[in-house]
Every structure is written in C-alpha cells, then in structure tokens.
Amino acid sequence: RSCSFTGFSTVQSRKLGKALSRSSVRSRMALKPPKAYNSLQKGALVWDPKPLQVKKIFEALKKGLNEYLQAHQAELDYLSGRHKDTKRNSRLAFYYDLDKQIRSVERYIRKLEFHISKVEELYEAYCIQCRLRDGATNMKQAFSLSPATKASRESLVELYRNVQECTEDMCFIEGALEVHLGEFHVKMKGLVGFARLCPGDQYEVFVRLGRQKWRLRGKIETDDSQTWDEEEKIFIPNLHEKFEIKVTELRGLATILVGVVTCDSSSFFSPKPQAIVVDITELGTIKLRLEVLW
C-alpha cells in the first residue's frame, strides 16, 4: 500500500494511490476461492488482527518448514552419493530407480522452497500493513487532540478510513496465511492415571479447535488396556485458536467432569511426530496422551 500519512495533498491523488495499492495487495493474496473469504470481503464485519499471535505462528511454521527442507536435502545428498557409486558399478536397473527417487526428492524440495518463500512474502506484507495501521492510529490520536478545524476533521475521516482498510487487509492476509499451515493428524494414545483408572471405567474425550470437533469414547479393559471408538482425527490449524480438551467420566446416565485444558498448537509444526502428554487434572493424576503429526 502506498499510503502516505505524513501529509495530505489532493483528494484525487490519495484515492488513486489507495486504489492502486489496495488492488495490488488483494491480487497478491488471492490464494483461495472467493467463497472461502466471506467474512473478509469489503464491507463485511472485520475482526481485530492479532499481530503477536501471527508472529508466533509464523516463526514456528517457518522453523518447521526449514526442518523439513533440511531433512529432504540430507536425503538428496545421500541418494546422490549412491547414484554416483551405482553409475560406476553399472547396475542399470538400480541406477534408474535411484534416478527416479532423486528427481522426486528434488521436486519436493522445490515445492518446499516455494512454500517457504510464499509464507515469507505473506508475512512481510502483513508487517507492512501492521506498521501502516500503527502509524495511521498514532496520527489519528494526534489529530483528535488538535483544535477542531475543517482540515483536521477531514484528516481524521481520512485516517479513520486508512486504519479500517489496513485492518481489513491484515485480516485478509491472515486468512491467506492459514492456507499454508497444513494439517495436524492427531492420534489418541490413551489416558494415564495409575490408580485413578480402573477396569470398567468409561471416559469421553472432547477435542476442539475452533469449529472443528472430535468426540470419542473409551473404556478401561480388565487387562488395563484401553479401547477407543476412534483413533485419529485430522484438524486444520488456524492462527488464533488453541486446542481445547475436555475429559469426562461416564457413570451410567451421569457424567463427571475430570478436567478442561487448552493446548497451544505452535509447537506442533515439526516434521517429526510430537508425543503430547496433557495434565487433565490440576495435580496431574490423570493425563491424556496424544500424538500429533504435522
């Protein structure tokens, strides 16, 4: 956006600058079909952006993507070494099979590099809009303290419009960034409770991430093993919501709340499966074990 908050020239130049910059921001961010951005269309209700949370998720996402890139680069180096040895030994069938593997890994590395560059581009655009919004907000406050004149009132109206437009663009970029967060495959590994878990006990675990829900029931068997009606669920991560986990014990028609906890998802952006142990009770007498694969 080429908004200039240090001075006000003509109305026409301001409108032209905003129109050009606004269209460029939206054209670069068009990563989903329009229906996916119903809440982000112009004139719709816009929520308040969360720059600190976006920064936290961006850093975790970039770290995870770079770890993926390093792992595949190491695999490529290993395959390339074997490729050279095989070429010298002239085992043609094995040589061509290795060649296919190398090409496949190279394509995946290029996709990862593009993914990382797109995430960085989105976050850079987000930071620009954030700084513009902060500058417009500060100037709006300064103008509101100055003597009320026709010029100051016009400036306040213009600054208010700029703040709204920057806020709208930040929300739009947040939605575009969420497209690149991938998926969380969450596996149920069971409850841990030592003496608290007895054969015949039945529990219900309810996991929620925003509007996504997973409700599953399990039973403690006589050999202390556990059976659950579902073992895995795919969640689509977002920037603002945390995992909310609720565990209840089922006793006939009655239910007894064991505990409710929230879990931040920023640590799940890792190429390796994450073993998660969550304290359900305050004293940790009952824990929930999950495995998260990104």
Topology:
Blueprint (H helix, E strand, L loop, with lengths): L10 H18 L22 H39 L2 H54 L4 H29 L5 E9 L9 E8 L2 E9 L5 E3 L3 E4 L7 E9 L2 E10 L10 E6 L7 E7 L1
Antiparallel strand pairs: 1-5, 1-9, 2-3, 2-6, 3-4, 6-7, 8-9
Query: What assembly state would you assign to the polypeptide chains in this entry?
Result: single chain
- Report Rg: 26 Å
Measured by DSSP, the beta-strand proportion falls in 15-25%
Largest sheet, in brief, is: 5 strands, antiparallel
Helix share of residues? Answer: 40-55%
Distance linking N and C termini: 34 Å
Query: Unreliable stretches, pLDDT < 50, 5 or more residues?
Result: 1-46
Number of helices: 4
Domain FAM65 N-terminal: 1-294
Organism: Quiscalus mexicanus
Pfam families: PL48
InterPro entries: FAM65_N (IPR031780), RIPOR3 (IPR026136)
Account of the 3D structure:
By secondary structure, the chain is an alpha+beta fold. The chain folds into two domains: 129 residues, no CATH class; 110 residues, C2 domain (Immunoglobulin-like, Sandwich), CATH 2.60.40.150. 48% of the residues lie in helices and 22% in strands. The protein contains four helices and nine strands; from the N terminus they run ααααβββββββββ. It has a five-stranded antiparallel beta sheet, with no helix packed on it. It has a four-stranded antiparallel beta sheet with strand order 5-1-9-8, with no helix packed on it. Strand 2 and strand 3 form a beta hairpin. Helix 2 runs antiparallel to helix 3 and helix 3 packs antiparallel against helix 4. The radius of gyration is 26 Å and the shape is flat.
